[in-house]
Amino acid sequence: MKQRDFDALIVGAGFAGIYQLRNLRDLGLSVQVIDNAGDVGGTWYWNRYPGAMSDTESYIYRFSWDKEDLQTYPWANHYSKQADVLAYLNHVANKYDLKKHMQFNTELRSAEWDEEKNIWRIEVSTGETFTSRYLITALGLLSKQNYPDIKGIDKYKGEIHHTAKWPQGYDLTGKRAGVIGCGSTGVQVITDIAKRVQSLTCFQRHPQYSVPSGDGPVDPKYREYVNNNYDAIWDQVRNSAVAFGFKESTIPAMSVSPEERERIFEENWQKGNGFRFMFGTFCDIAYNAEANEEACKFIRKKIGQIVKDPAKARKLQPTDYYARRPLCDGGYYEQFNRENVSIVDLKETPITEMTESGIKTSDGVEHELDVVILATGFDAVDGNYTRVRIRGRNGKTLKERWENGATSYLGVCVPGFPNMFMITGPNGPFTNIPPTIETQVEFITAAIGEAEKSKRLLEAEEQAEEEWVQLCEEIAANSLFKTANSWVFGANIPGKKASLVFFFGGLQNYRARLKEIIEGEWKGFKQINAAA
Questions:
Q1: What does pLDDT average to over the chain?
Q2: Which residues contact 231 (CB under 8 A, 6 or more apart)?
Q3: Are residues 16 and 71 in the same domain?
Q4: How many domains, in total, are found in the chain?
Q5: % the chain with pLDDT above 70
Q6: How many angstroms separate the CA atoms of 39 and 26, rounded?
Q7: What is the Rg, in whole angstroms, of the alpha carbon atoms belonging to the chain?
Q8: Is 485 part of a structural domain of the chain?
Q9: What is the pLDDT of residues 347-361, one digit of tens each?
Q10: Which UniProt keywords apply (predicted)?
Q11: 15-26 and 82-95 are packed helices; what angle lies between their axes, rounded to 10 degrees?
C-alpha cells in the first residue's frame, strides 16, 4: 500500500490524542491520529464494563481550555459514567472537526527511526506505512489488559470476559457470576451487578480500602457556582498536588486529638472521593505509618459497621497500609449484605484450577459459574509500549532499553528516541489524568514549536533522564505506596520487575519544572541539526 507522509503521527484518540491533535493542527502541521478502536475515546472506548465510572468529579474530568464548553456542556451527576465520558469526547472531536485527521481500526505494529532521513517510519495493522517527523504516543496509563494464568482455563465451558474488553450490550441478569479482582474496576463491577445476578462470587486477591464516592444528581445551584468559579477552580487544580479539585490538607494526623481526627475522617467520608479522603484529611497519610494506621482503623471500623456478616466483614478488612490507588465507590461494602453475594479470600483459599463448570479453590470447593469476569487490571504505564516494536537510534528498541525498568525524562521523552514524545509515559506525575494530559500536551507542543523554529531534532539527554529518575526515587523513598504490591509499581504482573513509574512530587511542582525547562532553553534536551 502507498506510503503516507505527515509532520506528526499521534497514536491514540483518547483525551491525550484529541488535545495533542488540536494543538499541533493549530501549529500548522499535517497530523494523523491512529487508534486500534473504532472511534474516539481511548480507555473509555474499551472499558464498557458494568459500573464503569470516573473517580474524578465531573466538573474537572474534562478539558479546561474551552471556557464556553465548560459552562454549557451538561453533566447530570457528580461523577461521569463511561457512556457520559465517551459522549463528551465525541462531542469535543466533532466540535473541532478533528475526526477527519483520525484513522480508526488501525493498530500500531512498529515504529523505527530512520537516521539518514531523520523521520519515523510507522507500520500499522492495515498494511499501510506512514512517515512522520514527530511521533507522539498517547497510549494511556491503563490500556494493556492483564490476563491471569489459571490452570485449566481452557476447560471452562462458560463465558469469560475481561472488563477492558467488555461485549457491548451483554446482559448478566439471572446469571451465576464470578468476579476475579477487587481493585477499582472490580469494586465498580461488583457494586453494579450484585442486584441483578442470580449469584455473585467475589474472588478477592487483595482487600481494598474504599470510601464512598459521594455521587448523585447535580443541583442546578451547584452547577451555577462551578460555572461562575471555573477560573479559580482550574487555578487551584493546576497548583495542587493531586489535582482533584479539593484543597489538600497541611495538618499532620497526630497533631490533633483523637476526637478531632475522627471528626475530620467522618466529614470527608460523608463528602466522598478516595483522593480527598487520603490527601484532604491529613497531609501525612501517604508517608507516615502512624497517621496511615489511623485512616486504616477508621475505614476498617466502617466496613465492620456496614457488613453485617462477621465472616464477610473480616475478609473485606485490609490489614496492610492504606497505600494503593485511593478508591471510592457507590455502595461496595453494602453489596455483601445481599444473600446472593459471597466472598472468597484467595489468600486463604487460592484458586487451584478452572473446571468445565467453574472455579475450584484449595479447600476443595467448586464454585459453579455461568460467567467469569476478569477485573484483573492492566500491565500499566509501559505495557502498551513494550508490546510493539519501537526502535530508536542504533537499532535499540524501547523494550530493550526498559529491560530493567521503564524510565524517561519528565514522563515525556527517552534518550535515543529523537522527536518522540510520550503522554503519561513512565515517571510522569501521579495525579488526576486530564490536567496531567493538558500539562504534558502543552509542553510537547512547545517542544515541537521550538524544533520547528530551530530546524533541529529534540532528544532527551542521558544525564537528564538519570537525574529525573533519581529525583522520582528520592521523593518516593518515604512513600508508603512503595510498600504495596500494586500496579503503581508494576508489581501486579507476574515476572515483571517492579519499578518506580511515577513522579510523586505533585502537579504544581511538575508544572514548575516544565516551565523552568522551557524558559531555560530546553535544559536536558540535545538539539541536533535536523538536516537530512
A1: 92
A2: none
A3: yes
A4: 2
A5: 93
A6: 22
A7: 23
A8: no
A9: 999 999 999 999 999
A10: FAD, Flavoprotein, NADP, Oxidoreductase
A11: 10
| Among 340, 258, 348, 341, CA closest to 301 | 258
Cell of 528: 541536533
Give 473-511 pLDDT, tens digit per residue: 999 988 898 877 655 665 544 554 556 788 999 999 999
Residues in the chain: 532
Higher pLDDT, 405 or 119: 119
pLDDT of res. 317: 97
Residues 317 and 391 in one domain: no
Q: Answer yes or no: is 464 within a domain.
A: no
Q: What's the grid cell of residue 122?
A: 510507522
pLDDT value of residue 478 = 87
**pLDDT of 337 above 70:** yes
Q: How high is the pLDDT of residue 149?
A: 82
Domain span holding position 267:
153-374
Angle, CA of 325, 88 and 387, to the nearest 5°: 55
| 429 and 327 together in one domain | no
Among 138, 137, 120, 126, CA closest to 45: 138
Q: Are residues 322 and 188 in the same domain?
A: yes
Residue finishing a domain among 347, 374, 401 = 374
- Residue 184's nearest CA partner among 52, 275, 280, 281 is 52
In this structure, are 168 and 134 located in the same domain? no
Domain finish residue from 430, 454, 478:
454
Number of H helices, E strands in the chain: 16, 24
H or E element at residue 180:
strand 176-180
Residues 366 and 384 in one domain: no
- What is the domain-level CATH number for residue 424? 3.50.50.60
Cα separation, 306 vs 461, in Å, equals: 53
350 to 202, 347, 368, 455, 484: CA distances (angstroms): 13, 6, 16, 59, 20
* Banded pLDDT at 322 (limits 50, 70, 90): very high
The verdict on 208 and 329 lying in the same domain is yes
Say whether both 315 and 441 belong to one domain.
no
Cell, residue 439: 500539562
Nearest to 429 by CA among 369, 513, 359: 513
Question: What confidence score (pLDDT) does residue 528 get?
Answer: 76
Question: What's the pLDDT tens digit per position in 369-415?
Answer: 999 999 986 554 555 666 678 999 988 999 899 988 889 999 999 99
Model pTM score: 0.93
Packed helices 15-26 and 433-454: angle between N→C axes, nearest 10 degrees: 30
Domain presence at residue 227: yes
Quickly tell me which residue has 501549529 as its cell: 27
User: Based on the number of CB atoms within 10 Å of its own CB, is 259 exposed (0-12), middle (13-18) or buried (19 or more)?
Assistant: exposed
Q: How does pLDDT run across 222-242, given as a tens digit for each residue?
A: 999 999 999 999 999 999 999
Asked if the structure places residue 331 within a domain, the reply is: yes
Q: Fill in the DSSP letter of residue 61.
A: S
Residue 2, pLDDT score = 80
Tell me what pLDDT residue 55 has: 92
